[in-house]
């Protein structure tokens, strides 16, 4: 039998956490034959709710779930974990300045980073979900310098999946027949959902999405804003933010990272920029990546037209500003 993998979920008593932990315990994240031990962290005001989630995990009798650690102690939560999904964060409340939210999150990520650095298993893979996700990932790295850059990522897979969903509805094709959309940049409304390299499997072979949609006006405007603003649309409809789809996409992100992307297919992940596509090195930026043997690689050599170039730059500029703001909270 395989040895159990320890998966940390922070903010586990929250909305996304509640949707995410049963998916992990069912094998959605790491596969149906991979036993898991869940480590759940939350803050003291959420301790009782967290214990309730633990009770439900016991009650659900998941065959793959070999243990549950539910704690408000970051060191206990981080000890021995192989995968860390960072969902806990300070939400932006009405009337709060961006800088105040940033400063709260900087201090959360600072302390969790050092707990992870000191106590996680070697080669622990980290996925940051809590917003501002890209910049929280940067801060985490700053305070966990011994965790390699390649092990720290942030979630833009939900945006990627939303783009697939929009194309699927528009063309009335299966989402599983569409591939290679890209989310560039920040997990924010400046992200750039790009279909210029996306294709659809049809009975007559693979066809470019642009050719099939035949409506550049829709693709260059409404499609982009729909994906960018989908989170807000869900809050409006549900009166709560997207938790189910965020949790499911977090599982997709980790599964593809660990188990690999299918040949010829890429996905979007927020990763350290190495300067590819002229994105400033040292930002955590969403790129198209392929994964193999537990490592991601930025897809190289894609053509970027003038329209796209501007969008890539706009979202990079926002990330540079966020980075500056975050570092100003450190001093
Ligand atoms: P959620 O579980 O709904 O969201 C958690 C985080 O994920 C938020 O930062 C949220 O950002 C972010 N997020 C990223 N992508 C998405 C998406 N597509 N849809 C929705 N959210 C997204 O929040 P809850 O408030 O229900 O739960 C948060 C938990 O974190 C609570 O249990 C709380 O106790 C804990 N917490 C932990 C702290 C700590 O570790 N020190 C501090 C504060 C809270 P956004 O806010 O932009 O929606």
From TrEMBL:
CDD domains: MDH_cytoplasmic_cytosolic. GO terms for biological process: malate metabolic process; tricarboxylic acid cycle. It catalyses: (S)-malate + NAD(+) = oxaloacetate + NADH + H(+). Its EC number is 1.1.1.37. Pfam families: Ldh_1_C (PF02866), Ldh_1_N (PF00056). PANTHER family: MALATE DEHYDROGENASE. This is Malate dehydrogenase.
